[in-house]
Amino acid sequence: MTARPRAAQTSANVVRNVLYGSLTWVLPVFLSLLATPLLIESLSIETYGVYVLILGLISYSFSFGLGRAAVKYIAEYLISGKTGEIRNIFSATMILSVAVGMIGLLLIFVLANWLVKDLLRIEESLQESATTGIRIAGAVIFISGIAQAFWSVLQGAQRFDIYSKLFNANSVLLLSGNLLLAYFGFGLATLLWWNLASLTLMTVISGSAAMRTVPGIGFGLTDGVSALPRIMGFTTGIVGYQLLGNALLLIERGWITRTFGSSELSYYVVAMSLGLYILGFSNSLALVIAPLTSETQADKERLRSVYLRSTKFIVMIVGFLVMALITGRHVFLSLWIGPDFADRASDLMAVHLISFGLFSIVVVSWQMREGLGFPSHNLWITAVYFALTLGLMYLFTIYWETLGVAMARLVGCMFMAAFIFQFERWLFGKVAIRYWAGLLLAVAGATAAAGAANIYLLSLFPRNWLTMLFAVAISGGIYGTALVLFRAIDDEERRFALAIFKR
Q1: Spatial distance between the Cα atoms of 196 and 178, rounded to a whole number of angstroms
Q2: Considering the chain, what is the average pLDDT of its residues?
Q3: At what angle do helices 84-114 and 124-156 cross, to 10 degrees?
Q4: Which of 185, 205, 345, 501 would disulfide-bridge 271, Cβ 3.0–4.6 Å?
Q5: CA distance to 364, 442, 443, 480, per residue, from 487 (Å)
């Protein structure tokens, strides 16, 4: 069936979608920052380490980004009017998601004891609850695959307004329930049962929203099987790099738990979470890039404009966030968790912030490769990143313990960031040398001035949340002023930024 093609995205639509995409980061991060110290206090530092280990298993073991193909093809078919193909693509995506989820569920259920006792060597007092938690995690993984298939439909249809509402509702439901359960003294297994229940509810709601939003959406086994080769051809690269990235994170967390204990993992993961939040923010801003690229892939000039402007905004925003958190890391951790925790985790936090700041710069080019149908490029980049980081991880641990693990990831992220220049040469025929020279000079100058101001202000006043926010606000003003003085932002970009804030 062919319907009237949907109009291409206008600048106003792009602004709206960027804003809605960012909302999938703001509220979950705020709730996570609120929940983390309370969960640590309620569960104990050792149990919290096991909890984040299991959450890592849920998020990274069988999460292969199978819905990315649906995002690409649904965006293309809506713009071309081939809405009849959407049912086939969705059905194939759902078949893959259910199959992979079932495999994950069975493997995790069978291997739970071995993972806890032999591979991770979790403390004996925590082994029973950890085994139960890992088995519950298998069910969460299965349901999350189905939820992601529905969310991919909404992303492909550029309905980031609906997607952001569902994503935020899921975060509020999950984290508020966890906080209440932890406050009333419930243990690890109960928290994970709540994760499963809340996600199941949101999956049902997401399915209903997807079917109402996109005409012709539905499931057909025959339709899905016929579209599997198309999905598999695109998804292979995505599954490959997700598998390597997820394996690296699980190996990293497992290695720390096995070598240093679950309490050290807690310090490592909390310090790492700030870097992951920044990467998540960049990804939330760039959610619109892949479907927008699929829509406009024939217009090379528009693609170049989208790439340069999007990358510039992310570099500027990430530059400020990394600067503010690094210069104020000990104060922040002391206020957030406690002074003893800050003493143990502040250096780890600095390394992770630089690592994921570098990773964030690559986000736009990464999404554009997928939107153009070349996720295999991302696979090869990830393969080298994986091998380099893993090799250095074991070597650096000998000399610097958990800090060495973080430093190994930093080297890998430096390597990955360099591939942005290969992307520019591949797609546009040349590297934007003047663009990068001007941008990096402006950001470096603005960061130095704002960082010095932040350090000075934090040393001048008593340490509390009010003075920290005041210091960040003043340094933010200095940062923005410096960028203007360096002429890093042109008139069109200022209008784009103002449009986002007005909305």
Answers
A1: 12
A2: 84
A3: 170
A4: 345
A5: 22, 8, 11, 11
